[in-house]
Amino acid sequence: MTRTALLLATLALAAPARSQEPAPEAKGALAWIDSDRLDLIGILEARVPLATTGGWSVFIDAQAVTAIREPTSNFTFLVDEVDYRLAFEASRSIGRAGAVTVGAGERGATLVDDVGSAVVRVATVAWEAPRFRQAAGPDGWSGRVEAGAVLQHRGLDAVATGRGDLRYLHRVGTVRLGFDAAVDALIGGDGGSDLTAGPRLEFDLGEDRRAGLYARWLRGRNPLGLKTDGLVVGFDIAQGSAASAGRPTPPEVSGLLAGGAGDGGRGAVEFLVRVALPPMAADTRVEAEVDANVLTAPDGNDLFYHYDAGVAHAWGPFTAGGWFYHRSNHLLNGVNPTVASLNVLEGGIETAGWARPEPGVALGRAGGIDFRVRAGWLIDSTFGENDRWHARAGVRWAGPAWGGAVRAYAEAHLERGDVSASSYAVGLLLPRGWDVRAEARHDEELYSSDRRALLGIATLYF
Q: Which 3 state secondary structure label does DSSP give 275?
């Protein structure tokens, strides 16, 4: 995972200029599963263009699947495992015949709060039907097939991979009805296949964004998958490749991918997806954010999640609202008998550019500024509940653009209450949604005995 973070950081500096690239694709999904082992499944996906040249479009493609066993009495979830995929792909349109894609990447399954992991590194080739990448539709049949050769494996024996997706949709009034099916195979001594199939209902949110409801039967035999059988019922919100480049008002599907390395051989990875539904009245909307992080250390690899869900109202460049905030800490591929967590009901205000590549509040020749301030009541915590209040705040100042493209910035975050955390960073906001920074962190919620880290991080916003 550290090598992956370093590769992402290198691409931030090496990627060429963009030219007529498709829009970033993103999806967030949450599902209940009727299984003897799992209860919930959370999915984050993103496929972000890096460059287009000579008829080929280059992407970074990422997916993280969190398998949840059960919720505890204090809103904390017991996570069973995390399955992930990270690949770099080059795709070329072949007109009405669809598109072909070649890629190379890594796929893995890692137990959470227990010992066990498996990884394969693969080279792949794929074909997909025209408009398969659209989130809203297309009507009729569409599909994709992929084959891969395993170049390296750890924790299992495999020589090849294969995947096929099939989808049919039919418009009925303002919605689409249909079904989808998929097979995901690992071939070799420890091979097996996941099979899913079932109906779905989709609501078009405009500009190639949609919300969907689905039910699927899962037969899980792939050792890099969920490894269980059951009925899966859930919802997803997605943005497809035909979406507009900018989205001034919700619905919004956006986020970031980040990776880096630091002192003591540490590695850091972050995958955030943010969803805002269409406004209910005026500029008031329901929104949610899932932020998954990994920070490695010699004595343990911390996996921690930030969840925000609430109602917000926009006033010009500012947004105010109320949210439920949850954080939980786990160990990747390590025994951990107790999950650390806290839950807060909070209110606050933030600027439109917070956690985004462009400043939201202009300061003229002084650049731009963004901030977030939230505070509220601590519902419960595994850290002693010594304080019933909790507060989080952050500020980022970005200087004027150099050559109309690059901005230097400084950023600080503070968290106080039952636990404390802080981070300070200086960096550059680069063209095409890239951000590179040097960061110092201190986090009391980490399981590692070293709760301070000095990191170099590259971030790609989408």
A: strand
Smallest Cα–Cα separation from 313: which of 275, 287, 342? 287
- Residue-wise pLDDT tens digits, 261-292: 999 999 999 999 999 988 888 889 999 999 99
Q: What are phi and psi of 250, to 5 degrees?
A: -60, 155
Q: What is the dihedral of CA 39, 44, 45, 51, to 10 degrees?
A: -160
Q: Is the pLDDT reported for residue 14 higher than 70?
A: no
Q: Which residue has the tokens 């919802």?
A: 235
Distance separating alpha carbons of residues 290 and 272, to the nearest angstrom: 6
SS3 content of the chain, % helix, strand, coil (to 5): 5, 65, 30
> What is the three-class DSSP state of 10?
helix
Hey, which residues does 51 pair with through a beta bridge? 58
Number of H helices, E strands in the chain: 1, 25
DSSP letter for each residue of 329-376? EEEETS--SS-EEEEEEEEEEEETTTTSSS-SEE-GGG-EEEEEEEEE
